Amino acid sequence: MNRGADRYEFASDNTASICPEAWDALQEANADEAPSYGEDRWTARVCDLVREIFETDCQVFFVFNGTAANALALAQLCQPFHSVICHEHAHIQTDECGAPEFFSGSKLLVTRGANGKIDIGEAEAIVARQPELHSHRPRTISITQSTELGTVYTRDEIAAVTEFARRREMFVHMDGARFANAVASLNCAPKQITWQIGVDVLCFGGTKNGTAAGELVIFFQKEFSREFDYRAKQAGQLASKMRFLAAPWIGLLNDNVWLRNAQHANRAAQRLSDQLRSEAKIDIVFPVEANAVFLRMNEHLVRELHGRGWHFYKFIEPDIYRVTCSWSVTDRDIADFVAEVVALKD
């Protein structure tokens, strides 16, 4: 069969364009000269907006991407003789080329848990296996919100993680590449699932929510951020023209655009999941709680869909694939993909 036009709508939320509000803010920042290295009014405004949204006086830093955000945040919390507990499917474990361990020198201790969430019992067992000086000392537990399997930690689940950490004098790091989708799913105030229940640092993602680049590292206790600016500089993460990372965030954070984008992506994923299940009889593997749908598909169907130009990725062997909805996915996109699956499935 002849290959169709390439379709990237469901390959990843990284494939989407910049959302209009972020684009307009970026163009406005490009109109004239401005101070460099974060001394501009756009950077200051984003920091103020973040403090308003989280309702606390937090410390905010910009880095270029999520890998840098996670790696440097963990390096700030950990010494080389420390360890970080994370889920076996966590992005810091599977997709960051060892950056968290490289920058911090600490060791990742991998645990399991249903639907991409850390099982506290498993975490307890890991700590019990590190009892003395000859082992890395567990110092941080890292959770992904929303998870790499498209699920969302509830407030109570996060509270259980933070309580586990506090009893052991550990920090809590949250990889929030899709934090907006989690907030939209839970319909809660951001503070309720972060600092208010004990999260120490959040890596707040914008790239998957409508910006071109630039993630935020947010320390909810300022003493934990001491000299983080030097750490970011040494890692090559200090942007000279910082306003071009900051300005699109103004477009996102003003008027709750970030939340509306996430709500749209979440609703699209739910519609896609419902239609694939009902019309194509496709097995949906994990609960659809954010903007990702995980499908079980055989090799023939996958090969035919790729042949029609659809891009998506195998996520778990042998037959589980992920399709992801972004802020810009349309009902037409969903209808096109479902129709192709129905036509090719049998």
CATH homologous superfamily grouping of the largest domain:
Type I PLP-dependent aspartate aminotransferase-like (Major domain)
Q: State mean pLDDT (0 to 100 scale).
A: 96
End-to-end separation: 16 Å
Record the strand order, biggest sheet: 1-7-6-5-4-2-3
**Could you tell me the strand content as a percent range?**
15-25%
Low-pLDDT segments: none
Total number of helices: 13
- The level 1 CATH classification of the largest domain is Alpha Beta
Most strands sheet: 7 strands, mixed
Examine the secondary-structure arrangement and name the CATH architecture of the largest domain: 3-Layer(aba) Sandwich
Overall shape: it is globular
